[in-house]
Amino acid sequence: MSFTAKMRAREVDIALIVVAALWGASYLSAKTLTEHAPVLTVLSLRFISTSLAMALIWSIKRDRFTRPEVLLGIGLGTSQGLILFCETTGVSKTSATNAGLIISLAIIFTPIFESIAAKNWLPRPFFVATVVAVVGVALLVSDKGFAAPGLGDWLMLAAALFRALHVTAMGHLTKAKSYSSVTITLLQSLTCAVIYSVFSFAGIKNAVTSFDTGLWLDLAFLSLLCGAFAFLVTLWAIRRTSSSRASLLLGTEPVWAVIVGISLGGESLALLGFIGAAMIIGSSYFGQRIETKHRLTSERV
What we know:
With 301 residues, the protein is an all-alpha fold. Helices cover 82% and strands 0% of the residues. The mean pLDDT is 82.
């Protein structure tokens, strides 16, 4: 590989790691915002901002809206709205560290749902990794003494399950289709913005008059950097590398969630929590590698 090719590959890797870091940091910002405004208000403002940014991007590309894209965008936006409601409510009731780690279980759940849909069952070691990840969650939520998971932890687990179903459905519904990614993402954002705004109109007015500069910066971080910017960078990077490598690099999200939660959020993990976090991250990587190898082998057969 030439020096230029190596540099281009390195640029793609760095771009995907930056996206993973942004997503990992998003849990702390979401938690901060939900301490000052209701969850639906935060989500409404977030997706109004994201929709405006995506509308600007769409106005540059001017991709045509088609009926299948409109139906798919609204459908996926509705399911995404449910996921983010569970996720944001969950992070408001648990630590940002726990939230980022538990949501990473979607990396394990997604291949399971995909194998069911494709009727191509995964090898046994993958399910060993799944069990290790579940044990890791149990240790994580009980790191200061064994206790039942809290409501926030259960909501993050539900969000991970819903996210895996959402990703699986999106993959099957868009497979071999020439849909515009910008158009579908814009429609998803608009759908979420409308749904959340209907239930939080009064909250939006209160937030607009009460948010200080720091809270507006947190909101801009979530909607613009973790939303529109991350989407564009991910789209650019995935077209220049393999999906397996992209998934592996984006899978570092929980690592960044732990780093940001502890270093900036003042959160902490006891010994059991660190062991649980290591088990979740390790099993997620292990399971992802098994799934990738199994899928590539099946495609060659």
